[in-house]
Amino acid sequence: MTVGIMMSNGKEAIAITDAQGSSSGRKSDSFVKLFPVNFSGYFGVLYGTGDANIFLGSTFGHDVASLDAYVRSLYSRMKALVDTIDTNYMTRQREEITKEALVISDDGRRADFARQQELGFIQRYEQAKQNQTWLVTVGFDREAGRVRCYLVRETGSLEIFTPHLEVGSGADGANFSLGTAIQGLDVTRLPAEGLLYFAVNAYHMATENVGVGGTPKIAAISGNGVMQLPDANVRALMNLSGAFLSRYSVITPGSMIGHCKGALEGMVNLRAISRVTGLSGEQLVRMSVPYNVWQDMANQKLFWNGK
Length: 307
What we know:
Elements: E1 4-8, E2 13-17, E3 21-23, E4 26-28, E5 35-39, E6 42-48, H1 53-59, H2 67-101, H3 107-129, E7 135-141, E8 146-153, E9 156-160, E10 164-167, H4 171-181, H5 192-206, E11 217-222, E12 225-228, H6 231-246, H7 253-264, H8 270-277, H9 281-286, H10 291-303
Antiparallel strand pairs: 1-2, 1-10, 2-11, 3-4, 5-6, 6-7, 7-8, 8-9, 11-12
Helix pairs in contact: 2-3, 4-5, 5-6, 5-7, 6-7, 6-8, 6-10
């Protein structure tokens, strides 16, 4: 359950991941899913979906000679780990079925029971495999002189040449947002703030999907390196985007893009954002109001003036 969004003009890129995850039946908005990658000839970020968190800790610090070698390394590590996990899981399931069947004294009935349980397990296993585990690395390749993005899973790797890529349970909402918003645009001509403008708005739409939420991590990638935006600035920008998209406040696209430019330059105008969102400066940097809350407030204000 996650969303990862990449948008690139070829020379620069924006990468965003959410912070929501689950453990022991409870969800948390404290998961870190975006990791830096830096080795000879390449610098960027790595993130993933599904069971990718299992792999991230052992992959993002791997030192290799080139991007192609790094992608091959990601693929081989992922395949080995997935194969091990699958084998261990199937072995445990087979042992459990055997234990349960021991209570049946009749050999024929015991065999039938085991066969039915195995068929049910195979169906559940195939369904679970549909929850795809992907790794995405996006960064600047010094040798190629451009941004490159790869999608990696246990069945292989694929270089992405489209200007945007969305993965995870929130991909549907993010893809719809970007697919409709960039109509007629030559994305290769967009400045970095334009990429960030579309990406943060798409993130809000992704939160309407199950399992996406929390304060996102945002990285800006260019030939100068990788810059991860401070959490406080990200919260302020996401609050502004929520107010903008929901029409809670009158915010022009030009103004929104200007604030995106400021965020990339490390200069977030909290006073101006506070005026249009109604949030204090401290609230802007300490909490990230979900999009559905912004839309709720906008609707209340539009139709009943909050009454």
